[in-house]
Amino acid sequence: MNEYERITRETRRRVSRLTLQQQRDILRIYDGAIKSISEQVKKAGNKTLSQRWLTDYRRELTRTRAALARELDKSITGYTTRAAREAVNGQLMIINGIMEAARLDPGNHFSTALSVVQRDVVNDIVSGGLYKDNKALSRRIWIHAGDNTRDIESIIAQGIAEKKSAIKLAEDLEEYVKPSAERPSNWGAAYPTLAGKAVDYNAQRLARTSINHAYQSATIRACQDNPFVEGIEWRSALIHGRTCQTCIDRHGVIFPKDDVPLDHPSGMCTVLPVITKSSDSIANELNDWVNGGNNRGLDDWFDGYTPNIL
Q: What's the rounded Cα separation, in Å, for the pair 163 and 157?
């Protein structure tokens, strides 16, 4: 394993840890939203709720949906930004290593430029510009929050039809937010359409995808102007039973820097910059260029990393 691969692997591990942290944060957000609704329902006491009560309560559900969407948007955008930063920092370590081998001091030239890569990648994901449907992150989150609101309304409507008390209905709502394996054995019978549904599944899937795409896109863009990077190698996760055939087929394939596919939703694959020149060869090339040698590739590289920060 060369130094570039070591840095890439460590970057991928940090991004994976971010994904796990994000999962816990999303669970916290959903748990808080459902508990808030449950507490509101409990205020009705032991009396049986009416359809009229549900009609009035829909306003509270609308407020809950908006609050849930805002929290999810803030969380997912934050973790997406951190993933892009990890990718940029990994590539900066590679560039600084190249410069150090040549005994050159780039100052903050590359770190400043790569911060623009990070910003642009996050903006593309948040705005939807990275995707064919151009659907903004906030819109995707709003749709998922709406799905949960409809589930909650369905639970309440069914509870009213079965003449459950407000306390029992609140307990059902609290069970809804739990992982399916932790729900009571009779949950599936009581709510067959929600039996195996994870309340946070779509949000988790969206978050994992945003984090991985931020990591991959930032890595790819940071490599595109680097003349020493000859291509991008795809490294699949190769987890038994979880790695799709497309990713298996891509494993080890070296893509041109300007034509690298992004992973599918919830993907876990790694992109690795391919640098075949030795450190000594790169150092000699850089030193020759610094001393006045003609090297159009290095000219373009250095000039290309001069950002236009607004």
A: 10
Residue 21 in domain: yes
Residue 265 inside a domain? The answer is no
Instruction: Report residue 188 as tokens.
Output: 């599936």
Report the side by side order of strands in the sheet with 231-235. 254-255, 231-235, 270-274
Which residues constitute the domain of residue 25? 3-146+202-223
The token pair that represents 143 in the structure block:
């749709």
pTM of the model: 0.89
Of 100-104, 125-129, 231-235, 283-287, the poorest mean pLDDT is in 100-104
User: Do the domain assignments include residue 231?
Assistant: no
Whether the predicted pLDDT of 309 surpasses 60:
no
Q: Is 232 helix (H, G, I), strand (E, B) or coil?
A: strand
Look at strands 254-255 and 270-274 and give their pairing: unpaired
pLDDT score at 48 = 74
Q: Residue 97 and residue 105: Cα distance in Å, rounded?
A: 11
Q: Is the pLDDT of residue 74 over 60?
A: yes
What total of structural domains would you count in the chain?
Answer: 1
Work out the mean pLDDT of the chain and round it to a whole number: 88
**Helix (H) or strand (E) segment spanning residue 102:** none
pLDDT in tens, 102-152: 888 877 778 887 888 999 999 999 999 999 899 999 999 999 898 988 998
Where on the phi/psi map is residue 240: left (φ > 0), alpha (ψ -120 to 50), or beta?
beta
180 in helix, strand or coil?
Answer: helix
Tokens coding 12: 């991928």
What does the alpha-carbon distance between residue 66 and residue 77 come to, in Å, rounded to a whole number?
A: 16
Other Cβ atoms within 10 Å of 49 Cβ, number:
20
The answer for residues whose C-beta is within 8 angstroms of residue 295's C-beta and 6 or more apart is 285, 288, 289
Q: Would residue 129 count as lying in a domain?
A: yes
